[in-house]
Amino acid sequence: MNEDRVAQTFVGRAIFITGGSGFLGKVLIEKLLRVCPDIKKIFLLMRTKKGKDPKQRLLDIFSNPLFDGLKETHGLEMLMDKCQVIGGDVTLADLGISSEDRQTLIDEVSIIYHCAATIRFDETLKKAILLNTRGTKLMIQLAKDCKHLAMFCHVSTAYCHLHEKHLLEKSYDPPANPHKVINCVEWLDESVVDAMTDKILGNLPNTYAFTKALGEGLVVETMDDLPSVILRPSIVIPIYQDPLPGWTDNINGPTGLLIGAGKGVIRTMYCDSDGYGDYLPVDIAVNCMLLATWNFIENNDRSRRIYNVTSSAEIKVSWNQVIEMGREIVTTKVPLNGVLWYPGGSMKNNRLYHNFCMIFYHFVPAIFLDALLFCLGYKPILIRVHKRILKGFQVFEYYANNQWDFDNSNVQYLRTVINKKEKELYKIDAEDLDMMAYFENCIKAARIYILNEAEDTLPAARRHMRIMWWVDKICKHIIMGICLYYVALYFYNVIFDDETPQDLLQKAIET
């Protein structure tokens, strides 16, 4: 009852991971190295990027604070010895892997985690298909050749079958024939595919949902002759507990909203404030991957092949609650440096009202401050920032104003078959979850690891926030006073002097 049976599953095994340089991939690698020290080898598919070869990129990954605990315990040499880079690219034919490396994978690998994907919702259709769909097809072909394959795990998304308002843990038909779509985009120019994108997507809002649904369809096709499992995580957010609470390497999802609002840049959003998103801490997703692997291999459980790794069946946190918690944290507990305006604003249920507020609260101040920066000899930046925010809103609004629910019976089943020690090591529940404390850790970590704001700057940030609070209050009172004055003046003159609004405007100009 006190044995870690999950770790035993990986003893002496060689693992192949795609997407190891991504957010989920980094946490997966760290977890495997920490709890499964007797793992034989972790092969990582990586490409040359920004002039750095795959080996240098691996060193960069291990330089991340996420791996500090492992380096202190085992040393960098052990990490480099356990991990071997395979040069390649999911978007290339045969994954861009050399014949020698491919043969090594075929001879040694027994577990594959296919995590590589583009998560850009505005990615061009051709690029998204080559990576998310054809890349999955090529990974399946490699998996079929592996001599000792025990499991092929495909990381999909809970948001790939958007027509299903209640997603069950079962397979669904893809929106198109994935083989025909792949063949089509392979020989068409990107400009032609771009011109056809809206027609091809149909009712789907973006290329991400479309291509991930196609990729999942390819895996489902091969379930009869391939030991495959599909995991559908929802909105993956920073680490909950293990090993570095709040850690993230990006500003996607709620973290970006909290930072934008905390800096005083985001002051309005078009969103159903009572709606909720399905958030999943990345360490919970990784723990579920490892437990699903153990259940599939050691328990030989072939009845559970698809897992909705989601949270909303148990915890529903509205968008408004996220914003209110974030506002309290960044104003009273963990303020950010360089705040432009006191965090405020709200979510709007009316698009016209939201657009009006966006013009006056986002773009007008941005134009004014950019003009001031230009006059002072600095490069204007705020208009560019707000254009990016506007682009992000276009994606966010679809998901924020629609609602989905997810059945996660298979994930809940895993909780019933693990012992006390495994429950602690591979936490996949939220029994002691404190949302306020969690988001506070998220903002603290984002402050340090994303914004590079040292902890010793907190006292100055708190003083600055108090000043911004007074400035905000004074400005609001001045504006309210001016408005009330002219409203009162208008009614007084209309009632007693019968003056027209044009007369009042002329007097105001003269004053």
Mean pLDDT: 88
Strand order of the largest sheet: 3-2-1-4-5-7-11
Strands, count: 13
Count the DSSP helices: 20
Instruction: Report helical residue fraction.
Output: 40-55%
Please report which band the strand proportion falls in: under 5%, 5-15%, 15-25%, 25-35%, 35-45% or over 45%: 5-15%
Q: Summarize the main sheet.
A: 7 strands, parallel
Give the distance, in angstroms, between the N- and C-terminal Cα atoms: 83 Å
Write down the overall geometry: globular
Structural class by SSE content: alpha/beta
Rg, alpha carbons:
26 Å
Q: Give the uncertain stretches in residue-range form.
A: none
Summarize the structure.
The chain has 511 residues and is α/β, with parallel strands linked by helices.
Describe how the helices and strands are arranged:
Layout: H1 5-9, E1 14-18, H2 23-35, E2 41-46, H3 54-62, H4 68-74, H5 76-82, E3 83-87, H6 99-108, E4 109-114, H7 125-145, E5 151-155, E6 166-167, H8 178-187, H9 190-201, H10 207-221, E7 228-233, E8 235-237, H11 254-262, E9 268-270, E10 279-281, H12 282-297, E11 306-309, H13 319-333, E12 346-348, H14 351-375, H15 382-400, E13 405-406, H16 409-416, H17 420-425, H18 435-450, H19 458-497, H20 501-510
Parallel strand pairs: 1-2, 1-4, 2-3, 4-5, 5-7, 6-13, 7-11, 8-10, 9-12
Helix pairs in contact: 2-12, 4-5, 7-8, 7-10, 11-13, 13-18
